[in-house]
């Protein structure tokens, strides 16, 4: 990812001095963090992102699992779904399963950003503005992180369902292991990768492109505070676009992860084609786009939160490393 550096000392000494913007390769001092620092930054970003937007994710899960009225919210309208949940189940139901996401989001995002930064450095070949390298790095990152997050995502979604039979995270894990085996946690892994590979490729490429474009619009106004706004804006645009494009596969993932629970359809295999055929047969092609609004409402601000938090954490570690180097 391109890094924006500014000569902030001169800027503060002279209010009319505009900071110089330099696009540096990934080996620059800002991106030149220790391995564990990338993991911590990514972990913090992922946890903040998912916790902040969890109620919207619950609405999306309910709407996508609507093939069975007993496991979903009766109405597919976002506003009506929210009203129904609040009226019949209370606000706390919007946060059911958040513990599972808390356990999975941190480690998964630590892996996600670490793999992304590592591959970006190798694949960019000295060109920080290489969109193909950004996209490919994002794909490698998501394949690795999905192996970490998928089991907890299964637990999370099953707890989010209306009338979920599980008492909590531990109970859900135990029952899935006993009734379905370890494979029950990875029934949707293939679908998740097929979905998240293009999602992440679009996300990272769009993020880097949007960030560069925003920097070019008004470079004279870019300071430390505005940089965080740029990260958040670029992240929101990238997240919303990627979410819209991959909604049909997200519906397939939800159906696979919730199959057999609360009366939700059970499939004979984890074949993406079989699930799509079932959805189209029962709900028409519109069924493949269920939950696209809350999905976009989740990913646009979530991406903004995630990227701005990640960049802020990287900046913190950069400053920390600089101070330590000065002391040494």
UniProtKB/TrEMBL annotation:
Q: Origin, by domain of life? A: Eukaryota
Q: Does the keyword Membrane apply?
A: yes
InterPro entries linked: MCP, MCP_dom_sf, MCP_transmembrane
UniProt-listed GO biological process terms: iron import into the mitochondrion
Solcar repeat segments run 33-122, 129-213, 226-316
Q: Which organism is it from?
A: Escallonia herrerae
Molecular function (Gene Ontology), one example = ferrous iron transmembrane transporter activity
The protein here is known as: Mitoferrin-like
- Give the protein family: Belongs to the mitochondrial carrier (TC 2.A.29) family.
Alphabetical UniProt keywords: Membrane, Mitochondrion, Repeat, Transmembrane, Transmembrane helix, Transport
Q: Does the keyword Membrane apply?
A: yes
- Where in the cell does this protein reside? Mitochondrion membrane
- Which is a Gene Ontology cellular component entry for this protein? mitochondrial membrane
Q: How does it sit in the membrane?
A: Multi-pass membrane protein
């Amino acid at each position: 990812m391109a890094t924006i550096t500014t000569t902030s000392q001169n800027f503060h000494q002279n209010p009319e001095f505009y900071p110089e913007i330099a696009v540096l390769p990934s080996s620059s001092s800002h991106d030149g963090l220790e391995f564990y620092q990338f993991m911590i930054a990514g972990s913090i970003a992922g946890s903040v992102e998912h916790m902040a937007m969890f109620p919207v994710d619950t609405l999306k899960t309910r709407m996508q699992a609507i093939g069975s009225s007993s496991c979903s919210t009766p109405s597919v309208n976002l506003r009506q779904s929210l009203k129904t949940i609040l009226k019949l189940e209370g606000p706390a139901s919007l946060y059911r399963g958040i513990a599972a996401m808390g356990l999975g989001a941190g480690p998964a995002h630590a892996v996600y950003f670490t793999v992304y930064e590592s591959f970006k450095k190798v694949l960019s070949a000295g060109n920080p503005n290489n969109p193909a390298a950004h996209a490919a790095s994002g794909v490698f990152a998501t394949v690795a992180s999905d192996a970490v997050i998928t089991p907890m995502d299964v637990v999370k979604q099953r707890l989010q369902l209306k009338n979920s039979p599980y008492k909590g995270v531990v109970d859900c894990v135990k029952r899935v292991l006993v009734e379905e085996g370890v494979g029950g946690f990875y029934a949707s892994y293939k679908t998740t990768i097929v979905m998240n590979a293009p999602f992440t490729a679009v996300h990272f490429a769009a993020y880097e492109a949007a960030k560069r474009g925003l920097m070019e619009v008004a470079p004279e106004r870019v300071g430390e505070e505005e940089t965080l706004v740029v990260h958040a804006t670029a992240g929101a645009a990238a997240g919303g676009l990627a979410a819209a494009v991959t909604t049909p596969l997200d519906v397939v993932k939800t159906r696979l992860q919730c199959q057999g629970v609360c009366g939700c359809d059970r499939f004979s295999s984890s074949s993406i084609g079989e699930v799509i055929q079932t959805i189209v047969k029962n709900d028409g092609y519109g069924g493949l786009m269920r939950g696209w609004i809350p999905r976009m409402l989740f990913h646009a601000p979530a991406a903004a939160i995630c990227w701005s938090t990640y960049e802020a954490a990287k900046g913190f570690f950069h400053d920390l490393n600089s101070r330590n180097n000065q002391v040494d």
